Amino acid sequence: MSELEASFSLLKDQNVLIYVGRGVLFTLIISVIAVLLSILFGTVLAILRNYCNTGVGKIFRAIATFYIELFRNTPLLLWIFICVVFCPTPAFFSQKMFGLTSVESKLLWKAAVALVLFESSIIAEIIRGGLNSVAQGQFEAAYSQGFGTVKTFLLIILPQAFRSVVPTLLGQVISTIKDSSYLANVATIELMSRVKTILAVANRYTGQGNIHTSDVFVLFGLAAAIYFVINFTLSCIVRSMQGRRKRAARRDHAFA
Amino acid sequence: MSGFFSIRAWDKVWTYRETFLLGLWNTVKTSLFAILLAILLGIVFGLMATSGKKVLKAIARVYIEVIQNTPILLQCCFLYYALAFSGHSIGIIATGVVALGVYTGAYMAEVFRSGIEAIPKGQFEAAQSQGFKYVEKMYYIILPQTLKIILPPAVNQVVNLIKNTSCLYIIGGADLISLTYSFVTGENTGGSYAPGYIVSGLFFFLICYPLSKFAGSWEAYLKKKDRRIVAVKEA
Fold this sequence. Notes:
heterodimer, A: mainly alpha, MetI-like fold, B: MetI-like fold, about 0% strand, flat
């Protein structure tokens, strides 16, 4: 039993806890920023793919379609590796910050770019689903009231489209948090990689000669618990939202 | 940065084509076995979730929630290191098959559950009234009808599984992405980044794109049929 006790002593070590805690913070920050940027980029892609049907616009539509299909059908890890090699780094990210070395913050930037590129293809398809659910009459009504194309989209179409995909987008946040663990392959920034790093030197903290199976269980169990708490909370929110919407839809249907 | 059109770099990829083919084979092999495991787990836990028995339902719920809310990478690492440090290592590909199968199985279970719940209650009652036992009822009456509905989401999960084989990299993998990476960074083979990544990306695209295209068009077909049925009913 002393092995297990030694493993649990890892969780009492202040340095370990701070290190892991920072990892959790980075995971959350990276995921939230990635989703927000992906929503921006994904909206543009979705609009291009859905509504550029005439003349020169067809080229943009083809580009958007190609982009979405390409990224949806290749693994995230491939894009992380590609970005690590090819993505240029702005000067801002090639310095020490947030307690990371300059090499790490460069990698953080590159991997985050890969995550945004990858997620935006998925979010584009989600938003396209929302756009498709907006009735055609909304466009005609907006045009007849003298709205231009840009205003029609910003004020009439997009708000309705977003409203209908909020639960799905929140669900995508869960996926993004899980996907961000792929960053562990190139940099020791977020939760997953930090747990793995600690495991490699666990014997130094436990005072035992070797790394034991119990260390694996304690450390990965801790990471799993953290991921689970974050994601389960989110998925409960998603489910209650969907339930509310379904009930509302049924009520509307009954009245109509 | 090595150029896209550098003939030397492309030549290197061609010389080492065996590496890519081996990676592709490993990825395909891992995916196939993992898909089988995932479907099996999906059916078992899907049936448990719709069985109406509280205990079985709770077990299925816990499995689905725990697996769906933690990253595949974590599960893969956990399994690999737990086995390795306790001296029962089963090899990278076998670990990958189990981890991917269990992970995708949780999604498949949800797919099967929603598919079974979509079958009208009358079908269950009719089967029961004709004296079908539980297994017969499911095998002959319910699952065949479910299959058609769940095809699109199930195929999408298969695509995700194939992409997720890249999780093998963290445990020292032998899959396509890992071998590509060790090819482009290797001492003797290194440097031809662009061609290497293009080739391995192309392999993934060629496998996954037809699958997701199929899932998409089948879903559109089902929706159209649904609309027709509703239209006929209303007419």
